[in-house]
Amino acid sequence: MIGKLKGIVDAIGEDELVLDVAGVGYLVTAGARTLARLEPGGEAVLHIETYVREDVFRLYGFLDDMERAWFVRLQSVQGVGAKHALAMLDAVPAGEIENAAALGDASTFERAKGVGKKLAQRIAAELKDKAPPTGRQLAGRSLAAVVGTGKPASAAPAEPSAGAAREGAVSALVNLGYGESEARQAAAAAARTLGAEANEAALIRTALKELAR
């Protein structure tokens, strides 16, 4: 199986790209959000989800591993295939999907092309009480892909990600005696209020206010 590819973007199509890795051109399916951030001739690192079926071998590529992780998680819902999952990630950033899942907010999923009200409600219901995916941990560097340089974004220690801050807030709330489900909903509501850059302490304070209502 292929988990990551690093190379030069040879060509970009409507829903795919060719990535040249040491002279071998890999055809990678990707969403519009990913393709818009790439340029022919530029270097890219793609997090890959490999699909193997009887008559299909397909690579799906993402610039951020949490997008890949949510691509997989969304397809755990009955009726959601790769096309729907890519459409949702094109319409809604992964962080917002995590918030919507925790809050059971079907309207967020309806923003995706081809996702109707009934399917959106099913997605919200099935994901609401599940912990978010964690993605793969890559040694010594951020999970975010590097485009154009082929180097880690910085040699300095990475700041905690929005997902890590939210998980820390959930853990703190659970330690205070709240149930995991209500803790996740409160943390998601806090993240939606404060924005993606909120740190763990701010999320905890705002989540506690949500729980006190």
Automatic annotation (TrEMBL):
GO BP terms, alphabetized: DNA recombination; DNA repair
Domain Holliday junction DNA helicase RuvA C-terminal: 165-211
Alphabetical list of Gene3D superfamilies matching this protein: 5' to 3' exonuclease, C-terminal subdomain, DNA helicase RuvA subunit, C-terminal domain, Nucleic acid-binding proteins
Region of interest called Domain III, as start-end residue ranges on this chain: 162-213
Principal place of residence: cytoplasm
Compartments where located: Cytoplasm
Domain annotation DNA helicase Holliday junction RuvA type: ranges: 1-61
GO cellular component: cytoplasm; Holliday junction helicase complex; Holliday junction resolvase complex
InterPro entries given in the database record: DNA_helicase_Holl-junc_RuvA_I, NA-bd_OB-fold, RuvA, RuvA_2-like, RuvA_C, RuvA_C_sf
A Pfam family annotated for this UniProt entry: RuvA_C
Keywords: Cytoplasm, DNA damage, DNA recombination, DNA repair, DNA-binding
GO molecular function: ATP binding; four-way junction DNA binding; four-way junction helicase activity
Signal peptide range in chain numbering: none
Domain notes: Has three domains with a flexible linker between the domains II and III and assumes an 'L' shape. Domain III is highly mobile and contacts RuvB.
Protein family: Belongs to the RuvA family.
Functional note: The RuvA-RuvB-RuvC complex processes Holliday junction (HJ) DNA during genetic recombination and DNA repair, while the RuvA-RuvB complex plays an important role in the rescue of blocked DNA replication forks via replication fork reversal (RFR). RuvA specifically binds to HJ cruciform DNA, conferring on it an open structure. The RuvB hexamer acts as an ATP-dependent pump, pulling dsDNA into and through the RuvAB complex. HJ branch migration allows RuvC to scan DNA until it finds its consensus sequence, where it cleaves and resolves the cruciform DNA.
Assembly and interaction partners: Homotetramer. Forms an RuvA(8)-RuvB(12)-Holliday junction (HJ) complex. HJ DNA is sandwiched between 2 RuvA tetramers; dsDNA enters through RuvA and exits via RuvB. An RuvB hexamer assembles on each DNA strand where it exits the tetramer. Each RuvB hexamer is contacted by two RuvA subunits (via domain III) on 2 adjacent RuvB subunits; this complex drives branch migration. In the full resolvosome a probable DNA-RuvA(4)-RuvB(12)-RuvC(2) complex forms which resolves the HJ.
Protein name in the entry: Holliday junction branch migration complex subunit RuvA
Organism: Marinicauda algicola
